[in-house]
Amino acid sequence: MRRQPTLAEEVLWQHLRGNQTGLRFRRQHVIDRYIADFICLPAKLIIEVDRCYHSEPEQTAYDEGRTFDLATLGYTVLRFANEEVLHQTASVLARIRQHLP
């Protein structure tokens, strides 16, 4: 996914990279048995950009379990739909900043 991110992931990365938020973000970072789309290690904040299949019941259940596991490890997980990142970028960035120290 790092070599072929979705358009939404690429748009978000352009806003997160290079300490633009004041903290460093990484993309496609391994945590336990998961790979986070984006992570800010100092803030213990994970950002996931979800494609449309994430609304299917089986995938939703998997995502909830994944979020629970990551929360158990001390992380906060924020999820955004592709369309939200593409069409409401400012709102997405504002929500991310609310979770940064």
Characteristic terms for this protein:
DUF559 domain-containing protein, 4 strands, alpha+beta, 42% helix, four-stranded mixed sheet, Restrct_endonuc-II-like, Endonuclease, Chain A, Endonuclease_DUF559_bact, 101 residues
Protein model, in words:
The protein has 101 residues and is an alpha+beta fold. The protein has a single domain (7-98), classed as VSR Endonuclease (Endonuclease, Chain A, 3-Layer(aba) Sandwich), CATH 3.40.960. It has helices spanning 7-16, 57-72, 82-87, 89-98, and strands at residues 26-31, 34-40, 45-50, 76-81. A four-stranded mixed β-sheet has the order 1-2-3-4, with helices on both faces. It is globular. The mean pLDDT is 91.
What topology emerges from the helices and strands here?
Elements: H1 7-16, E1 26-31, E2 34-40, E3 45-50, H2 57-72, E4 76-81, H3 82-87, H4 89-98
Radius of gyration: 13 Å
Residue-averaged pLDDT, rounded? Answer: 91
Give the beta-strand count.
4
What class do helices, strands and sheet pairing give?
alpha+beta
Query: According to CATH, what is the topology?
Result: Endonuclease, Chain A
Number of helices: 4
Largest β sheet strand count, sense and barrel closure: 4 strands, mixed
Regions with little confidence, pLDDT below 50 for 5+ residues: none
Query: Into which percent range does the helicity of residues fall?
Result: 40-55%
Question: In short, what is this structure?
Answer:
Residues 1-100 form the DUF559 domain. The chain is built from four helices and four strands; from the N terminus they run αβββαβαα.
